[in-house]
Amino acid sequence: MGFELFGLPMIYYIAMIVKVLVVFVFVLLTVAYATYAERKIIGHMQVRLGPMRTGWHGLLQPIADGIKLFFKEEIVPSQSDKFAFLLAPIIALIPAFIGFAVIPFGDTIEVMGYKIPLQIAAFYDTAAGKVVDLNVGVLYILALASVGVYGIVLAGWASNSKYSLLGGLRSSAQMISYELAAGLAIISVFMMSESLSLQKIVADQAGFGWYAFKQPLAFILFFICSIAEINRTPFDLPEAETELVSGFCTEYSSMKYAMFFMAEYANMVTVCAVTTTLFLGGWHGPGFLPGWVWFIAKVYFLIFVCMWIRATYPRYRYDQLMRLGWKVFLPLTLLNIVVTGLIAR
Amino acid sequence: MIMPLINGLKITLKHMFMKPVTLQYPTERPNVAPNFRGLHALKVAHNNAKCVACYLCPTVCPAKCITVQAGEDENHDKYAAVYEIDMLRCIFCGYCVEACPVDALKMTQTFELANYKREDFIFTKQALLEKK
């Protein structure tokens, strides 16, 4: 590996590509099987079985669903804005996946004498002897979360259907209301860690110094706001089928619909990974298992909690949703910041 | 405000570990009640249908789905030469079984009566005879 590019040995670039591929495939598989897990878990919570016929205990269900959606007819409404209509699913899907670039999912490993941190957008600075990652990692994730909603709004507008438009508008209103509270909830974490780098935030939580214990209110508020941001039950107003047929994706079919579906689940995985990183100590855990196993376990547990919440609570009414965001969560997060500021230093 | 939410989560978690009530139908069979009113059967005694063609069952039948024609056998006894039940009209009320004076009719636990042709729903005497 003597060859160098921009002053860095090739192994950095190869490691980067391998990490991207592994994480991407892993997240895709998780997304596919999250749909299966959701149907199974909600099924059992309703004392049913869930999918049982495709493969052993329905294990091939996500593949069957994917093939079915793939072969369905593509319908583009004649009065729609074609370009925006095609662009919207892509805008919704991509931010859901690229959030993983800054999430550290394991300890630094050593391959062929080089130290490689298990975080995509990071490398090991041999001169300084520490891992360098994106120093505004959390801002990057918050920015992506806001970009994702553009896809939904665009889908609602481009479909030229009143249900879709209302779904898109609801989604943007919800995003504004809850992004604020989520951002303020994270601020208390910054105040504790004094850094926006996720690598540093995770390092601060080593040995069960999890921010979920130090900032329980911020943890709960951030998780609830995240669920609201990714439009999952009980905050799935943008696709409330009792009122809006299917909301922003009413006019979508085939693979374009599947992309929205994947974006929704990928968002859920990303949000759970971010919550794990910020509040549950990232990949830190008892030493008998490697870090990435703990990371996956924590993320899967949070995904389970998302599904558990979906199986339990009915959908919020729209005015209740807005009241909760502006009148309950926002003051609570501000109070949390003040208290953290008084106590922390 | 928080406690009801937590109680709700507890209930769903408890339900997750309950045995599902789902019946995997074609492979798992339901337990049909002993007095279930399914497909009719004509009872057999001494290798002959017990029916004496008294016409009480078509008379009592509210759906008018039973057709009986009496015949005379070699012992000059009355018997049902034709005994047909139109299962598309039958409402499975069981009045025919109650009305029968010689206890010649019963209802079985068979409930899968789907068929391909309309004619196949008219069960003849041969099809209705009790299978031993």
Task: Please give a structural write-up.
The complex is a heterodimer of chains A (345) and B (132). Chain A has helices at residues 10-45, 61-70, 82-98, 137-158, 162-193, 198-204, 211-214, 216-229, 241-244, 254-279, 291-312, 318-344, and strands spanning 4-5, 8-9, 109-111, 114-116, 122-125, 130-133. Chain A is mostly helical and 345 residues long. Chain A has one domain (73-104, 134-344). In chain A, strand 5 (122-125) and strand 6 (130-133) form a beta hairpin. The mean pLDDT of chain A is 83. The longest helix of chain B is centred in the N-terminal third of the chain and has 15 residues, at 2-16. Chain B has a single domain, classed as Alpha-Beta Plaits. The mean pLDDT of chain B is 89. In chain B, a hairpin with a 2-residue loop joins strand 2 and strand 3. Chain B has four helices and seven strands; from the N terminus they run αβββαββαββα. In chain B, the strands form three sheets. In chain B, strands 4-5-7 form a three-stranded antiparallel sheet.
